[in-house]
Design a protein that fits this description.
four-stranded mixed beta sheet
């Protein structure tokens, strides 16, 4: 499955993203971590949902 990773320019800096897409064309699931200083590591299991729809991690 293709994975894209990068940064998006936002006011005051850049925001990281990781995009998992198996080409289903369905509505993507956007995953945000719990707050400032928190990690999205515990949510990595959710990328298996990319078999049925795009999954975007946003930090």
């Amino acid at each position: 499955m293709p994975v894209q990773e990068g940064y998006i320019d936002v006011t005051g800096g850049k925001a990281w993203y990781q995009f998992h897409d198996s080409g289903t064309g369905k509505t993507p699931l956007i995953i945000l971590h719990g707050g400032p200083g928190s990690s999205h590591y515990s949510m990595q299991g959710l990328k298996t949902m990319a078999d049925t729809r795009p999954v975007i991690f946003y930090d």
